[in-house]
Amino acid sequence: MGLPRRLRALGPHLVAGAVLWHAVALVLDASPDTSSGLRRQAWKEATVQAEFHAYAAMLGMDEPVFEEKLWSFAVGWNTARARVIGPFHRYLGWVHSQQSWQMFVAPHTTPSRLQIQEMDSAGEWQTLFEERDPDHTWMEPAFGTERMRASVFRWSWPGYEAELKRGCQALATLRFTQSPTPAVRCHFYRAPSPSPQQVLDDAIPEGTWVREQVVRRSP
Amino acid sequence: MSQPGAWARWVALCSRQEDALPVALIRVMTGLTVAGHIAHIAVTGALPLVWYDAAHGGLRNLDGGVLRGIGGATPEVVVPWSIATFLAAVTMVLGLSRWATWATWLGFWVLADLNGHAGGSYDELLTSTLFLLGWSGAHRRLSIIPSSTSTSPACVRWLLIGQLVTVYFSTALQKVSAHWVPWGDHMALWYILQQPTWQRVPMLWLAPAAWVTRVATVVSWSFEILAPLLLLAMWYRHTRTRPGRLRALFNRLDARLLILCVGFGMHAGIEISMEVGSFSLATVALYVACFSPDELRWRRGPPPTCSRP
């Protein structure tokens, strides 16, 4: 058998090897990656604390002990995972086929609602936009896209204060081109989501305004 | 004669060719999804906010990713790149060339990588699908340019099924909230539907029928954690002539179709109540991979290859 013929015979084996490699990489890389959640600051959020409370109660453990054990487990898991999937992860990075499927890991039970306002000539704040409010719809088509929703979602979480500041600056700059307003304000209304029973009893929990950012027009 | 070894059987399985119709349909649906997504981002005015650097009106400081070498996340670079990716996706839909798929893959991941805070799992799913389609010969069918061959490696279709199952199973493994799991209160979907970020409209009106969200929570989590059954069902269809009661049962019930129907219902519910971008479209496109070319041909022509479901 000549060399070209031998090389041609090798082709199906190479294809089979590549398919096997990709399938293994796909499965290993899809194993839960906890690195994005390993932020002590985020663990102090009400939604996260509520989850810890539920699990600690379920397991009959003290909440701080449960939290510490969970942290140690998550760190250990990630270290082991990184060691095992290293080459596969790099390969999937090169071919842009990363397997990151953290979708709705937990519902956010104390969500925040973005509101954007501008100051009128009397110095009063007038609402331009509020998430899912049909009466205040400035830039609504843009805010309604999945990419803008994902951006805004982060702004109310601990650790994203600088992102909110920059984002609000960009929106204010845009508004200043459309209106003579001297200032634009971005802030969030944060409130616990009511249970169905609370809705039926008309006992919707009150929330608070948080994360205020005011951008003034440059002279 | 002795039985071929495991590796020889694997090589034979991976060498099998089949009619490219299923991957061609996935190519059309994925191309439309990418083109539609880029058009939507542009038309709504979101494009400058999410893909321009803060110095040019964007929401964030962006380093430009691979576009740094040609100017970074500036209007002069991002706009032509978006238009080129859109055109590549349209060309991919038309099936002009294998290269259209690769161009769409390249264009889309570059855009998606520009701003990691403004993306979602649909970005990864679309780029993963495009990468596999690039190897598939999907342009040989449903193309405006007739091709001399109309086959595709069957292993690509199987990898697409594997991708689909991996998405579902992996996401279920990570749904560890006490509101999701069977030993919890099953309130996950109720609370998710109350999040202004993802809801299409305020959902408090659902309170009198909140049990629906509880049922949907259990069904969604169970469907996702049991997703590997789809792979089993597909394998049983592929090896239907072999013996086995479970195999016979799966094939008699068409377990594959049952699983896909539940999944389709789940995605329909998501689309009606929530805005999660292209995820449902990108996922449902992969459902086509679960059907053999013979099942998808509405008009029987000469069999191009020996293909089994």
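Chain B is about 60% helix and 0% strand.
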